[in-house]
Amino acid sequence: MRKQRRKKAPVINDHLCELFMNAVTAQEAIRSKPGITADETEKCGLIIYAFEKYVGVMPWEHSPLDPYAEGHWLELRKALLKAIDAKDGQAA
Q: Taking CA atoms, which of 18, 38, 70, 84 is between 20 and 30 Å from 26?
């Protein structure tokens, strides 16, 4: 059996914030539009996958994208939302 490597916590930067915003938008599009085409669904799924792969979410874990995320994923979600709010405040 292979030993699992411990993942480092992702550093919150502009790239991660952009991935998170795009993934949230994609997830909302999938959930809110019942008539979404297969191509659009695939694109949204790839956007979500890119974010989850970047932060290291395992398939059996709740993603930081989920409103019911818990543990360190909840902390990451809160930190990302706070960073995005701060960035939006500076832009205004």
A: 70
Contacts of 37 (CB under 8 A, 6+ apart): none
The answer to whether residue 27 is domain-embedded is yes
Domain-located, residue 2: no
Residue given tokens 């930081």 in the structure block: 64
* 6, part of any domain: no
Segment holding 77, helix H or strand E: helix 72-91
pLDDT in tens, 49-70: 999 999 998 888 888 998 888 8
Distance in Å from the first CA to the final CA of the chain: 53
Q: Does pLDDT of 8 surpass 90? A: no
